[in-house]
Amino acid sequence: MEEEVADFLRLHRIFAGAARILVAVSGGADSISLLHILQTLQNKGLFQAELICGHINHGLRGRASDADEQFVIEHAGTLGLPIVTRAVDVRAYAGMHKLSVETAGRQLRLAALAEIAREHGCLWMAAGHHKDDNAETLIQRIRRGTGFRGLAGIRPIRPLGDDLWLARPLLCVTRGEIMGYLREHGLQWREDHTNADTAYTRNYIRHGLLPLLQRESRASVIDQLSELAESADRLYNRVRREAEKAWAAMVQPGDNSVCIGATALAILPELVAIELVRQALVSLGCGERDLTERHYRSVLQLARRRDAEKKTSLPDRFTARYDSGQVVLSRTVSYEHHSRGAACRIGAHSTPSIVAIPGRTRSCGYEIDTKVLEQDEVDMRKIASGKNPLTEHLDWDQVKPPVVVRPRRAGDRFEPLGLGAAKKVGKFLTTAKVPRALRERTVVFADREKILWVCPVRIAESVKITDKTQHILKLTVVGEDT
Known about the structure:
By secondary structure, the protein is α+β, with helices and mostly antiparallel strands. Helices cover 41% and strands 22% of the residues.
């Protein structure tokens, strides 16, 4: 099994250029086997990078969660490896952002691990996803509807910004092989009793659907789905490369729109044409989750029919239309806020995006620049005298990462700076006589407990700069025209 993982690392050039690797260790069977295999391969000279253990305490199982953390700390100690732990409040985050516990846990875990990795100079982060996880992911996507991109499943490598890569070295092995490896080497691990709760979708697939499919099949369903994912990934990579070539010849990006030559789009192979349209919409900030085959086909119909009277509606208030030989993709609604002669269009998006701190996050047609500054680096009097509403300074010590950016939602509450009481965001905006166009385009920055900034209107009282502030988070929203 170690040789199989080693071959997988070589094939995908996993850990290339790494000086340090953060290994995500929950204490479960998958992560413990991953940790031991990577240390064995490191000792054999497959790679020279230093291994660091990262553990996230989700706080979902009370004392059991704390026991998991202690187990990982002690286990890392026996291996002579450094360990960094973080605690996150999954239930509070799920309630605030109206997410399932599964989704909230995944978002917080990934954000916290990425933060640890960046703090410790890790170029790579390794997680213990395996073939069975990939099979469960494929079935989950098939149930809700997906295309060949979705059928590619969990990929061996995933970029997390410009400075960090997430690797899955165990995607080449099954859960059964992992359990055999643990027993063979006499390794202990922690069991999470919630993994047996079929109220969670993934557990229902794992304990219900997959065994049912396996009973009806002579071959390994896990291996068959893994092969399907690999085939779909190869197809997508080929289609993506062709679409990128076509982009250079056919696409004219604008300030708030993208124009694609209609004749050239109409004669492209359909899969390439759809991928090109997808890339164009994503570049404008259109969320992918609600885009369906019907939307893509309606855009291609515009290119084929070339009817200037026709227009098609797309999710998130985007439209496509034919105009003078081009298919024009654009937003139908935007808000322009002028500050010292600069305009910023703030786009809407349907899911929270984790904000890199420090760093730059690109999300839905705009960019967010963040810096963490010492108190003596900031002259607040100078800032207050020429304040840009698209830049805010917050007390970083009062922020509980990860920070996300998202559209405001019904029921959102926060304590606006200077008002002394919590209010619903919608009521606050109305009372403050914020123009309707701006209310519709307002976005929210929040940590795992509270709203920090209703952008670009008001920050929360709890994160204002005071005489006791030691570290300052600078947030700047950079629009397309800024």
